[in-house]
Task: structure prediction
Amino acid sequence: MNNNYLFTSESVTEGHPDKIADQISDAIIDELYKQDIYSKAVLETMVTRGLIIVAGKVTTQGYYDIHKIARNTVREIGYTQDGYGFSCDTFNVFNSIEEEPADIARIGPRYQGVVHGYACIETPELMPLPISLANKLTYRLDEVRRKNILPYLLPDGKVMVTVHYMERFPRHVETIELLTQHQPNVDLNDLRKDILEKVIKEVVPEIYLDKNTQYYINSTGRFVIGGPANKTGMTGRKIAADTYGGFARNGGGSFSGKDPNHLDRWGSYNARYIAKNIVAAGFAERCEIQITYVKGKEDPVSIMVETFGSENVSQSTILRLIKDNFYFTHPKVMESLDLSRPIYKKIAVYGHFGREDKEFSWEKTDKVEDLQKSMCRPNKTQSNPVLENKNNGSDKDSPSSQPCPENKVYVFTKKYNIPININIEGNKVEGVILECDHKSLSVRINSPYRGLAGGEGHTCIEMGAGCPVNIDNDGNLTDKCIKRAEAILRSLYWKGKKIQQIKVRLIMDENYLERTRLILNYTRTLIDSLEFIFYRLPEYPWEEKDYIYSLIKRKCMLTFFYNTFPEVSIPENLEEELINIIDGDN
Result:
């Protein structure tokens, strides 16, 4: 994926037809688990104008009244008024639930399938920003209706949030589209103003909103007839909104309507639990887990870890930590996450992940300390962050099979400033190893060919992938680390030589405009990096940053051009053309 991109996620309110279906299905699951925690159920609900159909297979010792559950659920959502095509007191209920055959019911948990979990550092709850904002906006939309802050709103609604990412990190919200059902006597301009002030600005942090953010609030006009009177709803249709908003993969199976013994439920919750704790422990900025099960085998047949280049330890180390510190079998996961509880109607709307409610045990980060104790590296450097570990006699039944040895600490980054030099084509190329850890090396070149910087007195830093043996037990660099640093230095040399070759081409080329475009394109990544850093400076008001940045960008590129190509004779009118190219990003 490109480092600079727009990404959109969608969420819907509790009155959306698909979410009505999810909530009815999960309300039945909750009713079963209030009476019999060994209940098994696979349910589908369809809602449309004047009709709700519930079908599926159930095995339970409890009693459940489908008609009562369906009507109460719709009433709680807010469809209590006649005249809008759907009301809790006027629809028919068709019950097509059958008892699951006893021989199938005794088979045990459904153990075939693939589940995914994901976490990232974009939000406090370690979720992708687009789906986090979308879910919070739909929750707020329902909240202002329920609390009569905006009493003219009706239950159906949808939100889409588009976020601008730069260097794979959210910079600002590009677009918010919000559609909400409302009563017929409401002025659209008043509605749009109220939604902006009482919903959007109450939810979206100010740092992500600027003068370029676009708002589309009921952009197509009035929306009076909504819900099942407008569209048919089905259980399980909103799997992207239920998970990570499309930002991460999912196994394809929906959650609602299935008891927690189904792999789609407990497996996905466990995968999220694992990914969130890995990120919370600081081992990666983004982490995705895939776990695969087959029938007849209790343990997973495969576990995959993907950190998208954001890891602070190797992926093989993260995989070892996961296997040592988490459960994967159905009984252990059900017990450790306490999933045999009637909590599923509440989770059926606003997303299954990223929720801070205490009932949702898969959102806890209680494994961070265990993970950090398992990730131990000896270190004698006083300047490094030190987390001492003592064997405190933890529970012998804990899944952690490799406790941290005594007197060990964690090593992440150390400053070295060790000089290195190599000979290339008869030239002595000098550099410095600045920092090193088990993820990367930071190397600076101090030679005539200066990587991407150019000009006397400049330096260039390049990060290179490291390996787990960069540092020995005494905190010294290994021979393999030194060789890797020399390889990075060699790469910087050749990049510098390429700059020199471009300089010769520019000096000999009489087409000043074309050579200007060439160097501007070559420095585009430098300017993108500047923009990425600049927009996080707190010193300037957000509305001034675009203007200030345009001036800094212009000055930076002009200075870079002149310092890098002092031999080039600049015509009198070239600077104006150069500025036009810079401002136009050509």
